[in-house]
Amino acid sequence: MKFSKLFSGLFAGALLLGATLQANAVPFTVNITVDNSYALYTGTETQGLTFVGSDSDWPTTETYNFDLPASNFIYVVTQSDLAVAQGFLAQFTNLTTNERFYSNDPQWQVTATGRYGFAPYSGSAADFAELTQQLALANAGNNPSGGWVNTTAGDANGASPWGARPDIDADA
Question: Which residues, other chains included, contact 107 with Cβ-Cβ below 8 Å and sequence gap of 6+?
């Protein structure tokens, strides 16, 4: 299982982030697919706070809407079957500014947990506890990848073996 995170503050100049939903949290739409499966959360540097959604059917593209408070991160928990190819393909649209960023953005970071076959994939208390534990390990550099590391961007939307995923720009 891997976690990816993107700090909302990296886009603060464009997002004009606020502290709460009432104080300018930024509304986002995401179109996403992951081979093999994923769960999408938002939260602080140390814990997931909001479960946005999950799916384990990689040929489909899901769309979610959520609000991202200031100083929060977007977390994508992924899991692979360790066969053929794996991929994270998404576009995130700031609905306030209409700006878009993608899963291949170099500002994403990833971390490996070494917990193959188990991932927090719901909004249950147990899954939030697991996410919080894995974030603590990653933040301390005490996991199989030694903490958060840079991503490796693959081919753009449309590449083999997946083909073009609907509702996601070719730039992703």
Answer: 6, 7, 10, 101
pLDDT profile of the chain (172 residues), mean per 10: 43 26 76 90 94 90 94 89 82 94 89 79 92 93 91 81 87 86
Q: What are phi and psi of 127, to 5 degrees?
A: -70, -40
d(C-alpha 66, C-alpha 72), whole Å: 12
